Amino acid sequence: MRASLVQISVEPDESVESRRRRVASLVRGQSDADLVVLPELWPVGAFAYQEFEAAAETPDGPTCQALSAAARDAGVWLHAGSVVEKAADGTLYNTSLVISPAGELAATYRKIHRFGFDKGEAVMMGAGRDLVTVPVPGHLTLGLATCYDLRFPELFRALADDGAQALVIPAGWPARRRDHWTLLARARAVENQAYVLACGTAGTHAGVEQAGHSIVVDPWGETLAEAGPGEEVLTVDLDPAKVESTRDVFPALKDRRLGLAPPSRLRD
């Protein structure tokens, strides 16, 4: 399975419409891939909170329409990153879109863990509630997560339990915490014995410099490829058999102990 991570530069002087056209063209250029992955909230910028309401759209809105056509033209599965979704009740969500090679919207995922510590995304957006896995026929089953989700290992263990073999994580990760980004990506791969495809943005938006450094990690925790800080396409060949062989050779997942009692405490 060939995967291409498109690390998009999000800059404030480029309009959303212009960026959509440019990104659609980049996707069309990945016709030799099976799966293409885009970053989190690339149409507007993950930290451009003041733009969220105006940029909100439905899952089948203009971003999906533009990228569905691009996926169909390229003949690829496309994780189109995420958009600001406006639900029927007016709630905003950070929603990822997965599009099939036929250009159909195959799955959506609403980000469960919202970043901001009682401001920004944490108060402006609703929290998702559903685990989402997406089988890519003939290849791998994808488990979906977004950016800040990366810090919560229980989500990824649940995805692995649900059959995920590759964990796909679009992000708008700040440059000042880049070391956490690569460390956590490798940790999620090691503990779940799964591929991690973590695609971030480049550039600076809303005054926040982005980390870039999109990364692909194999089920043993080895970094297969890592981008630099600027706009870049990272293409890697993944072996679906590597997931099962890693789990067979080192069957740590079978040694999990669940349902442990609360810790005992000394009494006076």
UniProtKB/TrEMBL annotation:
Record carries keyword Hydrolase: yes
Domain of life: Bacteria
Xref: PROSITE patterns: CN_HYDROLASE, UPF0012
Coiled coil: none
Pfam name, any one: CN_hydrolase
SUPFAM superfamilies membership: Carbon-nitrogen hydrolase
Gene Ontology MF terms in the entry: hydrolase activity
Keywords associated with the record: Hydrolase
Record field: transmembrane: none
Domain CN hydrolase: start-end pairs: 1-240
PANTHER family: DEAMINATED GLUTATHIONE AMIDASE (PTHR23088:SF27), NITRILASE-RELATED (PTHR23088)
Family statement drawn from the similarity comment of this UniProt entry: Belongs to the carbon-nitrogen hydrolase superfamily. NIT1/NIT2 family.
The protein's name in its UniProt record: Carbon-nitrogen family hydrolase
Organism from which the protein derives: Streptomyces genisteinicus
